[in-house]
């Protein structure tokens, strides 16, 4: 990062005038978006017809965001920076849209909104208007990677964008309301994971305007020395800018930005050229300006500027109230629009003096349209990592350990290009993925001790005990053109339910914008799952993340439950090559039976669901008497064990075994892109025969997915029903009625006429469950007939 020309005296009066002109123009445009649908240049007095019927948007944070955007333009142009901005106060949509229009990037992607009076009118009307654009900094806004509707994630997104982009400068504005959230509080620690050699720089700008919707903010009320000590304790070197006089604030902010960027340049030069290894104290800016600055100071006798009342729409009755409408016109004219825009509504040259050109503009940077930068991963071949399967169920493997070897090769293949990272909350080794340490270490910029293992300043495995940070880092990384995988204990993926929801909404909205390029998918590997958390107990047993995901936009979500190691490899290869999805893979890390060869696994993943003819007893002359279906590794094992019992004791029964690896296949074709046509579903599951379905998660999900299918009345699902404790692995399935003995009993109960003929077998199955309960309480382990079971087909 280069240093600017010497500015020890600060900007000149002429330079401040140009900055102020741009700032006033952005403020004018922000106000116009909130209020106006016509008369954009105020060429005549405002009338009720000029005002939107519904006033939506947020003014309070907009002047501060406009100020930062204006000053970022100057340093980008002065220093020839490659820059990206993350706007934490997402309610400041009017500000970011205004600046995008001023710099021309808005008109380039929305050609019906040119930089003239007609375009300004369209810009105003489309904001928070039916058929227009949202009030937040959404995917519709050029230059954005951060949906501002939910607060807390701006800083972690900014760091994710900076990782492995050594030439990128990321400015991140953090609102003081957002700064009260838990994820944001944890995000300050991201500086401990930023490598000055291989990563870019992040400049946090904490914007303290004092208020949220209806209350003061905590950090704004802290004494300055206490706030300064807090931020220094996080490892930052704060620069403070404060005031309500525009000229003074312009001068101080320009000096602060130059100082911060000079310090960043020194930090990077010391690390990259001189080899410095100590963790630096990165600069940041604390900016204090009034809430709703330059807006109405008082409305209806109540103070507005610099109070919580400026948060949204300061003048709520403009269409009906003549006095409010007069105040609005005075407010907008106070920016002196005639000095800012010519007679045709185009910004005057003085306004655009510091606006960068081309891709250097914040609204045009390719880093905010990450698909422009994304390259296909050099995915290694699977053959060298697949396990040999001479016959189904005769050997076991640890699926995630097998996957770890493949990921190690992928890490090595991306070592030079540095565009793949593995993130997780302190669980890489626990989840059996530690083979990756053969190719890269764990990112760590703090001091190390001789007892530490695999820590590395330039590592691409990222572990921190905050699922929020893992998720946010990876989102920022993906949105700026790279790839990654998030490995997590299944039960604790729920911590990021809301974050993944926002990302899915981002993907869905982006798909409808032809100028947004597809990005690499957000991929989850959920392991240490519900059925093998018998040692940690009830708190670690929750398979409901899948339910949350499958409630979301069908075009953007995919869920895979590979039953063995080779199917996990095939699923991983598929998701890491995909674009614009959220993919969830659920796979255990404990020894699991090997069922399919690599070739069979690939075909099975491509189908998403299919029969395992070797496990059933169909002869092809008629429909089966019953279908045993399964989804998930442990349910698959229990279904195969129950099939073995039925084959032995009821050889005359015509039995079909179906395994589902892609759960969305159960949906009708019109409900999800992976959904089966009715004819295919009927052929697989039959129209009227009993289906006993052993499912990894909550059984109600399968019913919900298949409720419109023929034969739903004959569908009986077993799964997790919130029965858990610290116990043995097999007792977990027994407690939830998912065990092999219960499945055999279900078949006997539901196949017409079988109950009377197989009463003895049913009683034997019930006795086995009783014997299990007595055994584990005496021995503390599962019965040998369970622990030593093998497929005998």
Automatic annotation (TrEMBL):
It comes from the Bacteria. It is an enzyme of class 4 (lyase). It holds the Pfam family XFP. Residues 589-791 form the Xylulose 5-phosphate/Fructose 6-phosphate phosphoketolase C-terminal domain. InterPro entries: Phosphoketolase (IPR023962), THDP-binding (IPR029061), Transketo_C/PFOR_II (IPR009014), Xul5P/Fru6P_PKetolase (IPR005593), Xul5P/Fru6P_PKetolase_C (IPR018969), Xul5P/Fru6P_PKetolase_CS (IPR019790), Xul5P/Fru6P_PKetolase_N (IPR018970), Xul5P/Fru6P_PKetolase_ThDP_BS (IPR019789). Its cofactor is thiamine diphosphate. Keywords: Lyase, Thiamine pyrophosphate. Its EC number is 4.1.2.-. Residues 13-372 form the Xylulose 5-phosphate/Fructose 6-phosphate phosphoketolase N-terminal domain. Belongs to the XFP family. This is Probable phosphoketolase. It comes from Streptomyces wadayamensis.
């Amino acid at each position: 990062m280069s240093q600017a020309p010497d500015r020890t005296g600060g900007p000149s009066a002429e330079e401040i005038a140009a900055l102020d002109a741009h700032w006033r123009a952005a403020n004018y445009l922000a106000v116009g978006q909130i209020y106006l649908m016509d008369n954009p240049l105020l060429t005549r007095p405002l009338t009720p017809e000029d005002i939107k019927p519904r006033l939506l948007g947020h003014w309070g944070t907009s002047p501060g965001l406009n100020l930062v955007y204006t000053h970022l333009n100057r340093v980008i142009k002065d220093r020839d920076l490659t820059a990206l901005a993350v706007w934490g106060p997402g309610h400041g949509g009017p500000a970011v849209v205004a600046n995008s229009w001023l710099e021309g990037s808005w008109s380039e992607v929305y050609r019906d909104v040119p930089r003239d009076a007609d375009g300004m009118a369209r810009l105003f009307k489309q904001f928070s208007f039916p058929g227009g654009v949202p009030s937040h900094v959404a995917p519709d806004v050029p230059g954005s990677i951060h949906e501002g509707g939910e607060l807390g994630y701006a800083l972690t997104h900014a760091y994710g964008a900076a990782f492995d982009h050594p030439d990128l400068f990321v400015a991140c504005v953090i609102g003081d309301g957002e700064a009260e959230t838990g994820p944001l509080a944890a995000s300050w620690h991201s500086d401990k994971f930023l490598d000055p050699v291989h990563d870019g720089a992040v400049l946090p700008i904490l914007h303290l305007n004092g208020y949220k919707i209806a209350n003061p903010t905590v950090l704004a009320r802290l004494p300055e020395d206490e706030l300064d000590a807090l931020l220094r304790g996080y490892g930052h070197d704060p620069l403070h800018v404060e005031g309500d006089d525009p000229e003074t604030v312009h001068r101080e902010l320009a000096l602060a930005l130059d100082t911060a960027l000079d310090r960043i340049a020194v930090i990077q030069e010391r690390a990259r050229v001189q080899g410095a290894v100590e963790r630096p104290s990165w600069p940041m800016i604390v900016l204090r300006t009034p809430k709703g600055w330059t807006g109405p100071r008082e409305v209806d006798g109540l103070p507005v500027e610099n109070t919580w009342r400026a948060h949204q729409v300061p003048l709520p009755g403009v269409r009906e109230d003549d006095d409010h409408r007069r105040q609005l016109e005075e407010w907008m004219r106070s920016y002196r629009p005639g000095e800012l825009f010519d007679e045709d509504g185009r910004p005057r040259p003085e306004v655009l003096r510091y606006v960068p050109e081309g891709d250097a503009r914040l609204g045009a940077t390719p880093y905010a349209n990450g698909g422009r930068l994304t390259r296909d991963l050099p995915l290694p071949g699977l053959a060298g990592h697949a396990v040999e399967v001479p016959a189904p169920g005769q050997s076991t493997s640890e699926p995630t350990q097998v996957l770890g070897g493949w990921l190690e090769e992928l890490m090595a293949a991306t070592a030079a290009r540095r565009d793949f990272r593995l993130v997780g909350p302190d669980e890489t080794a626990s989840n059996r993925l530690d083979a990756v340490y053969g190719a890269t270490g764990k990112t760590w910029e703090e001091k190390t001790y001789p007892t530490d293992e695999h820590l590395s300043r330039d590592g691409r495995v990222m572990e921190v005990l905050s699922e929020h940070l893992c998720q946010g880092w990876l989102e920022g990384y993906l949105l700026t053109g790279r790839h990654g995988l998030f490995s997590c204990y299944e039960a604790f993926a729920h911590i990021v339910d809301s974050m993944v929801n926002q990302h899915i909404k981002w993907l869905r909205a982006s798909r409808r914008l032809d100028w947004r390029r597809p990005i690499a998918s957000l991929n989850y590997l959920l392991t240490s799952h519900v059925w093998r958390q018998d040692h940690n107990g009830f708190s670690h047993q929750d398979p409901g993340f899948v339910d949350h995901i499958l409630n979301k936009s069908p075009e953007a979500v995919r869920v895979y439950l590979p039953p063995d190691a080779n199917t996990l490899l095939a699923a991983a290869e598929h998701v890491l090559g995909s674009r614009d999805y959220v993919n969830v893979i659920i796979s255990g890390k404990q020894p699991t039976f090997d069922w399919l060869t690599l070739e069979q696994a690939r075909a099975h993943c491509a189908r998403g669901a299919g029969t395992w003819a070797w496990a059933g007893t169909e002869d092809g002359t008629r429909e089966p008497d019953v279908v045993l279906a399964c989804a998930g590794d442990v349910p698959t094992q229990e279904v195969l064990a129950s099939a073995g019992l039925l084959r032995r004791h009821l050889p005359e029964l015509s039995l079909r075994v179906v395994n589902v690896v892609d759960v969305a296949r159960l949906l009708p074709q019109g409900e999800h892109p992976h959904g089966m046509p009715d004819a295919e579903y009927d052929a697989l599951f039959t129209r009227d025969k009993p289906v006993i379905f052993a499912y990894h998660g909550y059984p109600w999900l399968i019913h919900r997915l298949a409720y419109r299918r023929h034969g739903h009345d004959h569908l009986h699902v077993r799964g997790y029903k919130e029965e858990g404790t610290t116990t043995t692995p097999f007792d977990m399935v027994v407690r939830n009625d998912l065990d092999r003995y219960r499945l055999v009993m279900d078949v006997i109960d539901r196949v017409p006429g079988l109950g009377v003929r197989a009463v003895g077998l049913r009683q034997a199955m019930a006795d086995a469950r009783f014997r299990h309960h007595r055994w584990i309480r005496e021995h503390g382990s599962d019965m040998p007939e369970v622990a030593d079971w093998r497929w005998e087909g």
